[in-house]
Amino acid sequence: MFQPDLLHRKRILITGGGTGLGKGMAHRFLELGATVYICGRRHQVLSEAEAELSRVAPNKIRALPCDIRDLPRLEEMIESVWRDGPLDILVNNAAGNFLARTEELSPGAFEAVLGIVLMGTINTTMACGRRWLQAAHPGVALNIAATYASTGSAYVVPSAMAKAAVVALTRSLAVEWGNRGIRMNAISPGPIPTEGAFSRLLPRPELESFARERNPLRRFGTVEELANLAAFLVSDFSSYINGDVIVMDGGEQLQGAGEFSALGRLLTETDWKSLKPSKPTKSSR
């Protein structure tokens, strides 16, 4: 299936594409022949990612600094892409997360996570969806959800709320837009180590060991595995998959709800104090 031209002539936008899962998907999509646009808030991070990814496929990667919560700026960014031709695929990957006791979170903490995960996804989906519908251009949107979106999870409540809404958006628009040529799907990944974010959500090495041993496969997922699944779901090989949420977690979810819920028994008061958030931690999902 993963032939070199799998995504040939596909034009793809990945939000949160400068690091972690977003950059991993960009790398794989470029290998498979796509033209890729990555966006994010941090200019330097995006520039470094663009330089790195250009070695995979020169002239087929473009970085576009943009805060997807800022709707006017987002519309400008999307319009600049469309001037070169319509996008074919949108990957809503940008995320933020806190590991915290919920009673200690400020309203601003909730707003920050919901703004990035939910409103950012709505903004990009509507911007691309309206253009696809107006032009009768087929499109594919892939959202990165979380295994706790359907169950909830302690200690990541804003993220659980936002991801649950993203799953509802995915399933709803799959029905509403499917007969007009737009497919909507989502991936719910389990723990996948990425640069920095994973260690902040599991702040002690023994917690990583606990999470690894709890998994039926006794390991974490990899960025490459996620990128391969994403490539399949956005490709024409999956053209009859619509409105689905694919869980990719090694079977972890089958052992009980809430990926982070067990931390209440494992973290000390000192741990919680050290984790008090000042701004959202960029998440691997």
Report the mean per-residue pLDDT as an integer.
91
- How far apart the termini lie comes to 25 Å
- Give me the secondary-structure category: alpha/beta
Q: State the total count of DSSP E strands.
A: 7
- Proportion of beta-strand residues: 5-15%
Largest sheet: 7 strands, parallel
- The SSE string, one letter per element, is EHEHEHEHEHEHHHEH
Number of helices: 9
Specify Rg, calculated over alpha carbons. Answer: 18 Å
Tertiary shape: globular
Q: Give, in spatial order, the strands making up the sheet with the most strands.
A: 3-2-1-4-5-6-7
Spans of 5+ residues with little confidence (pLDDT < 50)? Answer: none
User: Could you estimate the helical fraction of the residues in percent?
Assistant: 40-55%
Please explain how this structure is put together:
The protein has 9 helices and 7 strands; from the N terminus they run βαβαβαβαβαβαααβα. It has helices spanning 20-31, 43-53, 71-82, 107-135, 157-178, 197-201, 205-214, 223-234, 269-274, and strands at 11-15, 35-40, 61-65, 89-92, 139-144, 182-189, 245-248. A 7-stranded parallel β-sheet has the order 3-2-1-4-5-6-7, sandwiched between helices. Strand 4 (89-92), helix 4 (107-135) and strand 5 (139-144) form a beta-alpha-beta unit. Helix 1 (20-31) crosses helix 8 (223-234) and helix 4 (107-135) runs parallel beside helix 5 (157-178). It starts with 10 loop residues before the first strand and ends in an 11-residue tail after the last helix. The mean pLDDT is 91.
